[in-house]
Amino acid sequence: MRILSLILATFRELFSKATLYILIGISVIILLGLAAGISAERNGDEVSLSLFGNPTKMPVPADQFELLVREMQAGFARGLFIGIMLFGVFATASIIPDSLEKGTVDLYLSKPIARWELLLGKHLGAEAVILSNILFFVGGLWLVFGVKTGVWNYQLLLGALTMSFMFGCIFSIVLLLGVVFRNTAIPIIGSFIYLMFLDNMLENREEIFVFTQNKVVHGLLDTLYYVFPQVAAMQRNLDMQITHRAMEWKPFAQALLSSAGFFGISALLMRRKDF
Amino acid sequence: MNAISSESLTKIYSDFVNKKLSVTALSDFTLDVEQGKIFGLLGPNGAGKTTFIKILLGLVNTTSGRASILGTQLPNVKIRKRIGYLPENHRYPNYLTGHQVMKLFGGLSGMRRAEIASRSASLLKLVGMEQWSKMKVKKYSKGMMQRLGLAQALINNPDVLFLDEPTDGVDPIGRKEIRDVLKQLRAEGKTIFLNSHLLSEVELISDQVAILNKGKLLKVGTVDELTTTDANYEIGVATHPTEAFFHEAAATVLKFQLDKSTISADLTSTAELNRLIDLLRKHNIEITHIAKKRTTLEESFINLIKPVSDEKKPEVRQ
Question: Which CATH number is B4-225 given?
Answer without folding.
Answer: 3.40.50.300
